[in-house]
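Fig. S4 source data, part A: sequence.
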Amino acid sequence: MHIKASAARLGIFIGMALALTWPLAWHLGTHLPLGTESVATVPLFNLWTLTWNAGQLAAGYPGYWDAPIFYPETGTFALSDPQPLSGLLFALPYLLTQNGVLAYNLTLLALLTLNGWAAYRLLRTLQIRDGAALLGSALVQALPFVQHEIGVIQLVPLFPILFALAALFRFGRDARPRDGLILGGWLAAALLFSGYYGLFLGVMIALGGLIFARRAHLTLRGASGVLWGALTLGLILAPVLPAQRRLLTGYAWSDRTVAANSAYADDYLRLEPGGFGGLTPWVNDEGGTGQALFPGTGVLLLGAAGAVVAWRRGQRRWAAFALAGAGAAFLFSLGTHLDIVGFQPYAFIRTYMPGYTQLRSPFRMAVFVQVFTALLAAYGLEILWSWRGRLGRGVAVGLTLLSIAEVTTLPHRLYTTPELISTPAWALWLKEQPPAAAIMIPFEASGNVSDFEPTTLGMVLALEHGKPLLNGYSGFFPDSYRQLKAVIAFFPSPASVAILTERAPLYLIIERGWLTLARLEGISEVAGVELVYEDKAKFIYWLDTE
């Protein structure tokens, strides 16, 4: 019976994942979900990231950090979130099917399913009754923040956070060394799924340590739990984090960029346009920074009631932690917009806490506002679940569905291109050619994310044809790339030809539509250049100095 019940719950969470990504289920092998992304740049980049992880796993990690972008730079995979654990989930379906889009979508659905399962296990740890725990886990699985960020797959996996919170609660209650070890493991997992979530979770664990601390934690038993947690964290991160930190030396986001990605209080009254949220007059789809951080009216009301229930039930430390965590996350998400008599707490954090100079978007801490609110809402649902039998249960289910509908906008926008479905002829041809680097021309017109969509698609295809690219897209860009871009904008000028000749031998992959008659004539006058392939989409030239 227990196995059947667990299978039924898992089926519910899978069904929720399919519903929240609709109509992705009909296009698993051909389309990528965009979420609120205006273009496919980020989903394509994450497809490339996961594919690189899978290839490195299959090969035994021969050069993990030296991804084939920004050639001849090394350590380029460290310039963005490497997502090694998401890569492990992705690897099995990818290596079995060789369909990257299918593997990506199955990974996304698995992450959403695990979010629901982890929320359910946490709520059961908090002694929420089974029915209410299922409804509360549905609220967590459908958090608007995650729905909006479906196109940014590293912002989907909440389950390491939820499992870590469950371990923190148990350790705070019992001071068992085993729970300290588990907590350290899940904090490490959070970092390896998402650098943002891992660093943010560290702040919440520190806050929880203050709130849950008791005399038992000052004993040898409690201290050993902390030690086991720290050792577990260090051992799991040792193969990845030190190397990435070393390779990121000298890279940091500017104050201007961080300010542009810091939330305003108005953002917490903003919903994405569409859905039933438009019926609530106290929210809007304008103002603030443009980030939609409203948790939902139903979740807020249930969460407020749930905080009272948890307090009266005797779980005062947990209630205090959830409220304090939500409040701290709200203030943290304001980033550099929070100024207290000339003092900016986030600027202080960026200065003194490792890793924060490489975080661009403080507003993402809003996910913890929504997580804690939804977890408290489960207590409110439990009161309804226990009220007047079937009537109360019906009301609880109805409120849950309305709360999810308020913040959900379906159908999701999907992206596809023929080059995702089948490898284009030019890439298949290039795969059979001798080893050499390649450059895609033209470069992106500006630094806007929308201009990098062809670049990230080219990065995905480059893993097919096996030629390292001088082009690239990442969280950070090497100075050498910026210098190259400034010159290549005038290709085939003498200066651009000179800088490419320094990197020869080289394949020049040129968009057919970009090649005007004047540019064709200019290329034909370059010494050492030979047209080696041509089709309706591309010209490929071979550049060699010999």
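Fig. S4 source data, part B ends here. Residues 418-543 form one domain.
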